[in-house]
């Protein structure tokens, strides 16, 4: 009985860092009031690079996977909060909002008509002028925290102005491979 108790204690001790270091995915997002034009002004005032939108829907398994495995990580939360205002948009939502142009709309209308979201999740970078960056978009779940952080770096460094994320990712992988010790 005592040995079983010790094994249980050791198991709980082994998994506790994962529990301690995982945060709530809700902490990844900023609390907004549905006025994206105002949020854009806040982003400028706070010295952010822009706004990152996560287009999602309740029944999306890939959205839930991102929340459980990536967006709940303190590393991602700290990095993205440093550089962006971050909000969710429900692609099926009837909630009335004000878009980046100051027009009244709903989350659903903005998703479909302005951002042409057809699948979720979609992470879309919007610059400080309220324009969605052409190459600042990622559709689907990332393979994990490393790819998501790389996407963040891609946005922060402005590489999206020069190339697609897939090309950037290949270039970074090739650079790492070239730097790796040969043996």
Notes on the structure:
It comes from Solemya velum gill symbiont. Residues 12-157 form the Thioredoxin domain. Keywords: Signal. This is Thioredoxin. Strand 5 and strand 6 form a beta hairpin. The termini are far apart. The model is unreliable at 9-20 (pLDDT under 50). The protein has a four-stranded mixed β-sheet, with helices on both faces. Strands 3-4 form a two-stranded antiparallel sheet. It has helices at residues 2-21, 36-45, 61-69, 74-83, 107-114, 145-156, 165-179, and strands spanning 50-56, 84-90, 96-98, 104-106, 122-126, 132-139. It has seven helices and six strands. The chain has one domain (21-179): Glutaredoxin. With 183 residues, the chain is an alpha+beta fold.
């Amino acid at each position: 009985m005592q040995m079983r108790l010790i094994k249980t204690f050791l198991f709980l001790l082994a998994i506790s860092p994962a529990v301690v270091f995982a945060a709530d995915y809700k902490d990844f997002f900023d609390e907004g009031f549905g006025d994206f034009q105002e949020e854009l002004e806040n982003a400028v005032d706070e010295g952010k690079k822009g706004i990152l939108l996560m287009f999602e829907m309740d029944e999306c398994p890939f959205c839930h996977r991102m929340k459980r495995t990536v967006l709940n990580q303190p590393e991602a939360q700290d990095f993205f909060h440093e550089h962006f205002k971050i909000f969710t948009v429900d692609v099926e939502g009837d909630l009335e909002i004000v878009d980046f142009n100051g027009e009244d709309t709903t989350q659903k209308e903005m998703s479909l008509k302005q951002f042409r979201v057809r699948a979720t999740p979609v992470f879309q970078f919007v610059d400080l002028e309220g324009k969605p960056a052409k190459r600042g978009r990622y559709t689907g779940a990332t393979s994990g925290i490393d790819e998501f952080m790389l996407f963040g770096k891609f946005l922060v460094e402005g590489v999206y102005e020069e190339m697609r994320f897939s090309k950037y990712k290949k270039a970074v992988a090739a650079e790492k491979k070239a730097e790796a010790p040969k043996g």
